[in-house]
Amino acid sequence: MEVLRPTLINIDGRIYRKNHVKEQVYQNEEEDDFTYSGVIDCMDEPCDSVLIEQTDRGYRCSMAVPSALYKYIIGKKGDTKRRLENETRTSITIPKPGIEGEIVITGQQRVGVASAQTRIEVMLESFRRKQPFTHFLSFAINQPNIQEQFLKFRERVLDECSQDRGIDSSIFQNPAKLHLTIGTLILLNEHEVTKAAELLQKCKEDFINNLTGGKPLLVRMEGIEYMNDDPSMVDVLYGKIQMKNGTDVLQLIADGLMERFVASGLLEKEWDRVKLHATLMNTLFRRDPTVEGRTSGALGKQNMRERESFDARNVLKKFENYHFGEVELNAVHVSQRFSTDSSGFYASSGAIDFS
Hints:
The longest helix has 23 residues, at 190-212. It is built from eight helices and 17 strands. α2 (79-88) packs antiparallel against α3 (110-128) and α5 runs antiparallel to α6 (249-264). 29% of the residues lie in helices and 27% in strands. It has helices at residues 70-74, 79-88, 110-128, 144-161, 190-212, 249-264, 301-306, 313-319, and strands at 7-11, 14-18, 24-25, 35-36, 40-42, 53-55, 58-65, 90-93, 101-107, 135-140, 179-185, 217-226, 236-243, 277-282, 323-329, 331-336, 348-353. It has 355 residues and is α+β, with helices and mostly antiparallel strands. The strands form five sheets. Strands 6-7-9-8 form a four-stranded antiparallel β-sheet. The chain has a four-stranded antiparallel β-sheet with strand order 11-10-16-17, with helices on one face.
């Protein structure tokens, strides 16, 4: 059935067919995560949408590829590059490791250059998803009144629930980094960071200004929820967020941003709608206090195995309607992971404001 109904992959609005072949996996090398998936073709070759120019010696196209992904095109000891060149009858030139540039494909036949370009695009799309995320779209909610109430919440939980399994100070969020995550981004060079910042600005012009009316959004953070079905085995506890006036403007902005960034290829869609929440307690903080942006539903198997859940039944009972306060949201940030600015929040690689 996989031959009759092969997997289809959408990249930048173009549909590709992924043929079913036995995968070859290389391990214990610098490119140990590399997997060559075999022949991947356009649905209708030649691909007229591919930017290929005719030259005196045949055909040529160039691809802007982050240097962090070069190794997947080269493969173990250059095997992948040679295979691609042999099967498509092309020559593939790749910049030196660490140097940002373009991969250039040349060949005598246009169909060969198009095939090589398509295979590289599909391979890179797959391997990009395996990279750790570098940035995330966020609303900062670390204003002083929210931080103060969060610290009181932490103090009371540790005082009243510290005997419950798994509850200790290590799993609480850093109050200076309280935020709402819209989605996580994998931005592998400055060009992609700039692209994300420009897209965020375009979203402001296209629909955010109309939704906000040029004013900050007044939201209330009240009540707590958890991420799984068993309150005695919780990994993430978060604060609930809602507009004070009862409208869904914040949700519309978050969903609109997700849709635009997914369409651009900068963000991978995880849910039909953005789950507006502020992480308060996360068991991943036990091992890594810098973890941010991911919920339990978006974590890899390795991280899931490393987690030690906590019993949240008493916390949920005692603090079900805890009031963290009200805050004006006036900006969306492209926040940089593993960073801190002068306020204690994440460094911003791009931002828009509402007023």
